[in-house]
Write a structure and sequence with these properties.
The protein is an all-alpha fold and 670 residues long. The chain folds into five domains: 37-135, no CATH class; 145-177 and 387-473, Cupredoxins -  blue copper proteins (Immunoglobulin-like, Sandwich), CATH 2.60.40.420; 196-376, Cytochrome Bc1 Complex, Chain D, domain 2; 481-559, Cytochrome c-like domain (Cytochrome Bc1 Complex, Chain D, domain 2, Orthogonal Bundle), CATH 1.10.760.10; 569-665, Orthogonal Bundle (Cytochrome Bc1 Complex, Chain D, domain 2), CATH 1.10.760. 41% of the residues lie in helices and 3% in strands. It is built from 30 helices and eight strands. The chain has a two-stranded antiparallel sheet with strand order 1-2. Strand 5 (497-498) and strand 6 (501-502) form a beta hairpin. Helix 26 crosses helix 30. The chain is flat, with a radius of gyration of 34 Å.
């Protein structure tokens, strides 16, 4: 080896040694600048002394070890996070602040540890190692709830619960199988398509299938990104499905537009149906219904909505044929976009197929290939098929190596893939890997919640039975006999809930039989009115027959009762109690919210509008409500005054004295 080579070797060794020394210095400096668990414990002791105003005494600095053998937990996390359950430290930064919310109340750290929810490496005392691997913080911790909790809705995991609710709303299970995730079989949002050729015109259908939101901005149906020729074929196939009853309807009374408008208002259709995005959100938007459907289909739908759409939430209104004709005439006249109609009428459609038979057959294959029946049902009973989408039961376990990212440039992680897949499904499509998932117009926040829900579908579950919280599914309440048939006919569950079933759009009827008087209920079912002065919405007028109103009244008075609400309390009400009750009514300022005659507020129900409170409510219910309103309705605004039994009975006596027979109490006089 010559001198030049030796010189070069020595120079290389010098630079290597210098780099090694610099790296070591940086590492030592970095490590020394980070606080240790001992530093945090000493700092915590000083802060506690400052907050309490006492001198710091002898503080024992030691490692904290939480062991829960059943869960495989050996966590030293609280060696740094010493203020885990100290509410005085909320103004500090981690790790010297308490755990947020009230999770530790239900999950004591000594019984669960930390890593069972947060993941990571709980045994180490080095921050980087502790917060490595599958460590979760922030909203990601909600993914861990599924280890023990099988409920689809969980108060402690609001983002994951919202994601699951969205998956139910858009019925992801119609295409994907998800273990322990229930299907929504009651009242599907997608209409049945049998007979659609008698319902809609093909020009509307072309616009709708191409992009539902271009016709209806609040449409729930996603956009299927398919070629125009296949849309044309699908139209050809769908239009072959005719409804013989609609086709046979050749004559009905001429409708009156003005009368139809009035009848529609009395039916309060806007409570559920939006009209050009104004109104309810529970049913399809009728703002351009004239562009979509044939008038005689509307006539048949209003005559028997449950034959046309068996799973509809729409009640039967008992309209006369003339009323139906009037409504149909009004809808077709008022809610047709004539510019759109003319545009559709003048647009020339290319001829894509050799003949109609070929067009229909291709359309049938498209309907089957896109699994349209998973939401809309089959047009032909022989066309059954299985779900098209992949099984999502353990999607949270999927490794990056298993994902086909296509030509996309997104980060190669499972959460990023799921987010992009939902936001833009075709981002991963290639000529060799055609994708069928449609595009949903969801906000980024909604997509993030769905991603969290999907990540919670994994195999990481707690096997120890005592830690597992199972969802208890009670059988749905089925109203008996003729009462049950009328509940279904008028779709009471669409707006009301009772005995754990139905929707909470309006009042829960579970205690209605203990709340109201029989005569009032019968009259209200026959002719409803606005209960609260501040609200204009009321129950629709269903045009019930006397017998229907009687059966519903009897059923409610028998089924919707509680043994906790006393009966026949009226016998204990005396004139002396009435006078005392009026004094309490004045002193508690009840008129601030309730009306008596022409005086009072608008927040609570009126005691004299529509019906006198004494004619409407039962004494036992008034008494029970006054004792503790929140026990009956937890979110009610009315305060709990802590009335004694005697005070509640006196107020009950006064309210029961406000009747149609007692003229002196119909108007308020201080």
């Amino acid at each position: 080896m010559n001198k030049e080579e030796i010189k070069k070797l020595n120079l290389n060794q010098f630079f290597f040694t210098l780099v090694w020394i610099l790296g070591a210095v940086i590492l030592i400096t970095s490590c020394s600048s980070q606080k240790s668990w001992r530093d945090y414990q000493i700092e915590y002791a000083k802060l506690k002394a400052e907050k309490s105003g006492q001198k710091i005494g002898q503080y024992s600095v030691k490692e904290h070890l939480i062991e829960v053998p059943e869960l495989g937990v050996r966590d030293r996390c609280t060696s740094c996070h010493v203020a885990m359950d100290d509410m005085q430290m909320f103004d500090q930064e981690n790790p010297l602040k308490p755990h947020p919310m009230n999770y530790l109340r239900d999950h004591p750290v000594d019984q669960f540890g930390c890593t069972v929810c947060h993941g990571g490496n709980g045994e180490t005392l080095q921050v980087q190692k502790a917060h490595s691997g599958n460590f979760r913080s922030g909203v990601l911790v909600q993914i861990s709830c599924s280890k023990c909790h099988q409920q689809e809705s969980l108060a402690g995991a609001p983002d994951v619960s919202h994601g699951k609710a969205l998956m139910k709303k858009y019925q992801c299970v119609n295409c994907h199988y998800i273990r322990n995730f229930s299907e929504t079989k009651l009242f599907r949002p997608a209409p049945r398509l049998v007979g659609i050729g008698s319902k809609v015109n093909d020009k509307w259908m072309r616009r709708w299938l191409k992009d539902p939101k271009s016709y209806l901005p609040n449409a729930r149906m996603p956009k299927f990104q398919i070629e125009d020729k296949y849309i044309d074929a699908l139209i050809g196939y769908l239009m072959t499905s005719k409804d013989p009853v609609v086709e046979a309807l050749t004559s009905y009374p001429e409708g009156d537009v003005t009368s139809g408008k009035g009848t529609l208002r009395l039916a309060f259709c806007i409570t559920c149906h939006p009209f050009n995005q104004k109104g309810g959100k529970e049913a399809p938007d009728l703002g351009r219904i004239g562009n979509k459907v044939r008038e005689k289909w509307i006539v048949q739908m209003l005559q028997d909505p449950h034959r046309m759409q068996p799973q509809t939430t729409m009640p039967h209104y008992n309209f006369t044929l003339q009323q139906i004709s009037d409504i149909a005439a009004y809808l077709m006249d008022e809610f047709t976009d004539w510019e759109m109609w003319e545009e559709d009428d003048t647009t020339k459609i290319p001829v894509y197929w050799n003949n109609e038979k070929e067009r229909v057959e291709i359309g049938r294959k498209v309907y089957k290939e896109l699994r349209c029946a998973n939401c809309h049902g089959l047009l032909q009973e022989t066309d059954g098929w299985i779900k098209i989408g992949p099984d999502l039961s353990f999607i949270g376990d999927k490794s990056v190596d298993e994902i086909n990212f296509g030509n996309s440039t997104i980060p190669r992680t499972l959460p990023d893939y799921l987010f992009e897949k939902i936001k833009n499904p075709q981002a991963f499509a290639t000529p060799e890997n055609l994708l069928k998932m449609p595009k949903y117009d969801l906000s980024d926040e909604d997509i993030k919640d769905i991603v969290l829900a999907l990540l919670s579908f994994n195999s990481d579950t707690i096997k120890v039975e005592k830690y597992r919280v199972k969802s208890v599914k009670k059988p749905l309440y089925e109203p008996p006999g003729e009462f049950g048939k009328l509940v279904e006919k008028f779709r009471c569950f669409s707006c009301h809930s009772f005995k754990g079933r139905g929707h909470n759009i309006t009042y829960d009827l579970s205690l209605e039989g203990s709340r109201v008087q029989k005569e009032w209920l019968y009259n209200y079912l026959k002719l409803s009115y606005t209960i609260r002065p501040i609200l204009t919405i009321r129950m629709p007028i269903f045009n019930m027959t006397d017998e229907e109103a009687r059966i519903l009244t009897e059923g409610i008075m028998h089924e919707m009762v509680s043994p906790k609400i006393p009966k026949n309390l009226e016998s204990r009400l005396t004139p002396k109690l009435v006078e005392k009750g009026k004094q309490l009514f004045d002193s508690k300022g009840c008129l601030a919210c309730h009306q008596v005659g022409q005086r009072g507020g608008y927040v609570g129900p009126s005691f004299t509008q529509g019906a006198m409170v004494g004619d409407k409510l039962q004494a036992g219910w008034i008494f029970t409500w006054l004792k503790n309103p929140q026990a009956i309705k937890p979110d009610v605004l009315e305060p709990n005054y802590g009335f004694t039994d005697e005070e509640a009975l006196a107020l009950t006596a006064y309210l029961k004295s406000i009747t149609s027979k007692n003229k002196s109490n119909r108007s308020y006089e201080p």
